[in-house]
TrEMBL record:
Region forming the signal peptide: 1-20
Record domain Pectinesterase inhibitor: where: 30-187
Top-level taxonomy: Eukaryota, Viridiplantae, Streptophyta, Embryophyta, Tracheophyta
Name of the protein in question: pectinesterase
Entry's family note: In the C-terminal section; belongs to the pectinesterase family. In the N-terminal section; belongs to the PMEI family.
UniProt keyword list: Disulfide bond, Glycoprotein, Signal
Entry EC number(s): 3.1.1.11
Species of the source: Senna tora
Amino acid sequence: MKLFIFTILTISLLSSPSLAISPQKPYQQQSTKFIRTSCITTTYPTLCYSSLAKHAASIQTNRLILTNTALNVTLASAKYTSALMSTLSKNRRVAAREVAALRDCVEVVGDSVDELRRSISEMGRVGGPNFFEPTIMSDVQTWVSAALTDESTCIDGFEGTMNSEVKTIVRTHIVRLAHLTSNALAFINQLASLHA
């Protein structure tokens, strides 16, 4: 059991989206500086920079693209985390209580995926004829905040007396996802305040 859980944790950490940073090209220096400076304003600046730096060529110095990229990186992490929880919940060596908590996580992280998708879709309207329309930004803020709440609900399901390797795996991935979501929300809030 321990070997299985250790293997899952190792594979999941190595293959988790946005952990690797590509070597920087000279033309990306201004873009990476913009990303680093923007990330300082988030709650988790190190994770923010490591998750966005490899997208520097597309972000350049555009705050809207930065925000959209942060949302897309968060969505990729949410989908990956949901799939991992689903896989763990089907393993027969996982205790029944943990399986129940994992299934709850799959459900709430699934809700988070839906909310992030809706946010990304709505952000697609920003910059068009409804450039920074307050109701659009308000909807996006609401959905991303709801996604963050769902992620916290998953973590809560593993609190209490449960003390296992499964809990460690869940916490590792859900906490990272929640931090990515928090950073994306910070960028959304900045956009909303700049164009209020």
